Amino acid sequence: MNVLQLQSINPSIKALAVIILVLCLSFVFDPVTPFILWIFILTVTFIFGRVNLKRWLLFFLPFFILAFGYIWTTAVFFHPPAEIKPVSLITLRTVVITDYGLYTGLALGLRVLCFSCLSLLFIMTTDPIKFILSLVQQCKMPPKLAYGILAGYHFLPLLNDELKIIRHAHKVRGVNRMQGVRGKLAAKIKCMIPLLASAIRKAERAAIAMESKGFTGSRNRTFFHKMTVCHHDWIFLCIMVGLFFVSLFISVLLGTFRGIGVI
Fold it and tell me: Any keyword Transcription (predicted)?
C-alpha cells in the first residue's frame, strides 16, 4: 500500500477531513483564504490522487459556471452596509461594480470552488464499496442500511439495461408512436410500470439470497474485507486541516482575512 496515494486512505477519515474543511470554510468570508486552500486542494488531488484530468474537468465545469455566477451576480447586485463607502470600479450605464461587491463575490465564488474540489477529491479517489464497508466497521452504521445502499448502487446499471430492453420491446411492438410532449410523457409512464416491477423482483431476489447466506443484520459478524484506520490516515487528516490553517495564516499576514460575522 502506497501511503502517498489518496486511494489508500480510509474513506471515513477522508470524509471526515472534507466535512471539517467545509465547516471551517463556512466561517471564512474573504477571497484569499479559500483561494490559497483551493490551490492546496488541487495540488493534493493531482499529485497524490491519480485523477484523470479530462474526467475531473468534465465534473468541475458545472461548479465553475456556478461559482462564476456567484461572483458576477454578487458584484453587480450586492449592496454594502450603510456604514461602508464602496469604491466604484466599473460603471456600465446602470450597472455599477464596486470593490466591496467584487470582494464579496470572489469570497462566495472561491468558497464554491473549494467545496466542489473537496467533493471531487473524495468522489474520484474513493471506492464506493470500501466507503460503505468503512461506514459499517468504523462508523458503526447499521449493516441493514449499509448493505441496502450497496445493493441499490449495484442495481443502478442493471436498471439502465432493463430500461433499454423495455424501450426496444415497445419500439418493436409499435407502442410509442405518439408525437409531441403528451406522447413522450405517455411513453415514459409506460416504461416506469414494468421498470418498477422489475426492480421489485430484483430486490426480492437479493433479499432472499442474503437471508439464505445467513445475513441477519447483526453487528456481530466477520468481514471478508477488513477496513482499518492506520497512522497515515490520521496524518492525512492532520495535513488537510493544517492546510486550512496555513491558508488562514497567510490571509491574516496579508491583512485580508475577514470572518463571516464581519460583513
Answer: no
